[in-house]
């Protein structure tokens, strides 16, 4: 961690301060020789507020980054107040008292268990004519139908199914039978409140023709290694979940073109991401990232990279040099500065591509800025 103030020393034992933020008190332990900047760095993962968006107040005074706790007369048990600047946060926003209470998640778990255990509940009735139409078109569209289980008629369609959309329902179980839809190419499971145990990945991984998998707006905390078996995937949408990481096996998805994993709690990206050399667009915005693997430079087809609202301080050194098609880069809400970017090899070529892209969009915009305005601070 930058500053290294959290370790303390033999001569200066750590002290614990209480930081009041958004209706809760956060205990933080660090050396009295640590700076206020060190304290802000420790508070970043605990609050989702970037250091530059933090204002610490002690005894009515705003504390300056460069001074130490000792010189600020902060002692063991001292109480500080943290105020956050709007917009300067990582992940899915500042962690408030309400957000830290998992009552909603517990309620979702109870509802899911109730659904899974209620074996006597009759499946929704689907008229025969619609079932025949599904077989004829290969498209099953059941989005927003207030379903709690996948209708039996779906399974009867077998290998004729190409697209299954059961988004915006209350389906808490995708059984192993999903594998019987062996020709399926697109699967949409968005907004069902699904938990990790809701999906039979054994069934999903047998869908060798699957090109689009969408799991946005659920309650998933992890993706299994089995994801790597879906070698035909071109699009993976897992935004707005509670994911803390991406599996190493994502590197096996060499045909993947679009990865949208924004609004999660991902703190690191596996280096195997560099093997996904077909990637064109990657959205990792609003997560808990502090760095990206150098292997991002291997994404030679990458055109758009969205990284806003993360704790990033730099980018992989080869991202501009190697990603020769990159023209969209969103860094809003990070700590990356424009001066840092200008030091990267290949920056000039990237900036030219970005300008050309903006020039083509002039007909659809009121005005255009000649300077870089993708979120990097000028100082």
UniProtKB/TrEMBL annotation:
One of its GO terms (cellular component) is cytoplasm. InterPro entries: Leu-rich_rpt, Leu-rich_rpt_typical-subtyp, LRR_dom_sf, LRR_domain-containing, LRR_R13L4/SHOC2-like, Ubiquitin-like_dom, Ubiquitin-like_domsf. Keywords: Leucine-rich repeat, Repeat. SMART domains: LRR_BAC, LRR_TYP, UBQ. The keyword Repeat applies. PROSITE patterns: LRR, UBIQUITIN_2. It holds the Pfam family LRR_8. Residues 15-86 form the Ubiquitin-like domain. It comes from the Eukaryota. This is Ubiquitin domain. It comes from Macleaya cordata. The lineage of its organism: Eukaryota, Viridiplantae, Streptophyta, Embryophyta, Tracheophyta.
């Amino acid at each position: 961690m930058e500053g290294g103030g959290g370790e303390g020393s033999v001569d200066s034992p750590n002290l614990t301060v209480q930081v009041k933020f958004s209706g809760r008190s956060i205990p933080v332990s660090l050396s009295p020789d640590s700076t206020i900047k060190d304290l802000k760095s420790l508070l970043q993962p605990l609050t989702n507020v970037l250091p530059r968006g933090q204002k610490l107040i002690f005894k009515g005074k705003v504390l300056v980054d460069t001074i130490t706790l000792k010189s600020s007369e902060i002692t063991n048990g001292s109480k500080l107040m943290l105020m956050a600047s709007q917009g300067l946060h990582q992940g899915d926003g500042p962690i408030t008292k309400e957000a830290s209470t998992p009552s909603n998640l517990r309620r979702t778990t109870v509802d899911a268990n109730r659904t899974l255990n209620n074996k006597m509940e009759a499946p929704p009735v689907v008229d025969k004519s619609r079932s025949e139409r599904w077989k004829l078109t290969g498209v099953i569209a059941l989005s927003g139908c207030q379903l709690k289980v996948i209708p039996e008629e779906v399974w009867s369609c077998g290998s004729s199914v190409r697209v299954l959309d059961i988004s915006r329902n209350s389906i808490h179980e995708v059984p192993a039978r999903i594998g019987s839809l062996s020709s399926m190419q697109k699967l949409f499971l968005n907004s069902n409140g699904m938990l990790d145990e809701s999906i039979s990945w054994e069934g999903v991984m047998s869908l060798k023709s699957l090109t689009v998998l969408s799991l946005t707006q659920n309650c998933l905390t992890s993706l299994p290694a089995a994801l790597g078996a879906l070698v035909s995937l071109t699009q993976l949408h897992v935004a707005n979940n509670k994911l803390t990481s991406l599996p190493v096996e994502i590197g096996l998805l060499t045909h993947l073109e679009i990865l949208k994993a924004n609004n999660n709690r991902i703190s690191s990206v596996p280096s195997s991401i560099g093997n996904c050399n077909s990637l064109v667009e990657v959205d990792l915005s609003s997560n808990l990232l502090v760095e990206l693997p150098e292997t991002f430079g291997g994404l030679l087809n990458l055109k758009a990279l969205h990284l806003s609202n993360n704790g990033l301080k730099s980018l992989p050194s080869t991202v501009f040099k190697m990603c020769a098609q990159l023209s969209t880069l969103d860094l809003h809400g990070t700590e990356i500065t424009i001066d840092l970017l200008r030091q990267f090899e290949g920056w000039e070529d990237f900036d030219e591509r970005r300008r050309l892209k903006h020039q083509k969009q002039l007909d659809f915009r009121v005005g255009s800025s000649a300077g870089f305005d993708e979120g990097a601070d000028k100082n």
